[in-house]
Amino acid sequence: MGSTSLRHRKDMIAWRVFSYVFMAVFTFLAVAPLLWLTYSSLKPHPAIVRNIFAFPTEFYFTNYIVAWQRGQLGMLISNSIFYSVMATAITVVLALMAGYGLAKFGYRLSALVYTFFIMGLLVTAHSVLVPLFVMQTRIGLADTRLGVIIPYVGFGLPFMIYLATSYIRGIPDALEESARIDGASYLQTFWYVIRPIAAPVVATMTIFAFLANWNEFVFVFVLTSRQSLRSLPVGVNAFAGGMSRDYGLLFAALVIATIPMILFYLFFHEQLKRGFAAGAIKE
Amino acid sequence: MNSLAEKRFAYTILVGPAVVVYASVILFPILFSFTLGFTRWSGFGTPEWIGIQNYTRMLADPAFRIGLRNNMLIVGVSVFGQIPFGFLLAYIIYRKMVGAHSFFETVIFLPITVSAIVVAKLWNQIFSPAGVITQLMRIVRDDPRYVFAVFENRDLAIFPILGVIFWYYTGIYMVIFLANLHKISPDVIEASIMDGAKEHQILFRVILPQMTNIVFTTAVFAIAGSLKSFDLIFAMTGGGPARYTEVIAIYMYFNTFRYYNYGYGSAVSMMIVVLSLGLITMLLGVSRRFERRYS
Lengths: 283, 295
Fold this sequence. Notes:
heterodimer, A: mainly alpha, MetI-like fold, B: mainly alpha, 12 helices, globular
């Protein structure tokens, strides 16, 4: 037995060497572009052009001040916060409610409704853009905040319902039944029993939905035309299109657009990873 | 109110709102889109019924074929690049082959939190003729006049985009695989080490067979996700040069919102749905055959 574990240990050394190299390369690739972006954003445009790799000799914060004003980044950020918070709150509440109904009511209809939501995971936003745009233009929802939030919610629902339903299915029936015996209605049971027990999945759902909504691009891009309704990704895209001559300004705008999510990630990475791990969704 | 009626009422209140929003944003528009796909319509007046002309025109359009090719390349990068590399990263962390694994995990996952637009603009500068790659190659090749102009080359322009897609999304796969690896009991690995299994045997004979299901599920979502790619490419090249980096979603966007062919755009949208369902069905077929061979 000693010789087997010795043989295994030798084998492990090769793996470890390979692993360190592999991980180091990946880590470098993941971080280097972002670090380069960040320190370059503190250099004036001519300095970036002169030597693209050099660290800034002094911190040139003017980029940030000018980018903030010209890109109207304050307005974009508050729009993005508004869309993300509203859409996330509505999506999570609706999904949790539906999740309870689908997981615990035992109706045969539930299986059909659930499948119908899960199919939505495969639908791309682009396959509904044309009709959505036409419909919204007809009923006057196009170019309004509500017109942006509704599709955010609709496209968030399939995955959120998947998360909520599978979590609520795992809650023992006995808990709910005892509440029912005590005379609670189904809606009261939802509010006083299911909602508190589901708190962990609500946290995962909220954080995951918020990230997805914050980075959403195409709905605001297509369904709105007023500049005052733009979200951060749409605004930064437009700003970058006009500012390609000044790298310093562009980089500052990109960093400003990235910082909120990096902070968000540092605080909530466990929940985020749980959300990603539960399903494999990407845009 | 009796209890059965109360239950039905509660069910309607709980499930109803989600169904209404979902139906109005996804289900109804898809049906609408399906119908519109058989018409010629510029957004005004009455749509004119033209049968399957939109589809025949699409299949004959070289620009559509380029979009299709690019989409397939993205599917290829996802399935044969992101999934194996994501798996390997997860496996290294799971087997604790490196120290500070939570540091590596956190950092490699980081890019996914950045918005696709920022990623696109950042890599655009890196790949631009005056960008990082040009400067790097000038040093490496010791040629101060070298210019990296990949986005001016029609056939090669898609490759940097594929690289960025790989860079952007591989972390997701790592996290998915890691979460599922942690469900495997450590005893299984201990036992095979006792039996004298080498590390690569543990990977290929013990771990991978238990993960085939997850790999296939992940591949389904990778395919669906690949056909959705729009934001990143739209913000990087806008489909250029000369439409050579277009994907089908961008092709759809231009036809609809730039040339006002709503009917045609709808037909292209339906094509995306059909392709995604087709590829996924194919994949499920492969997975079934694969499972049979394993069992």
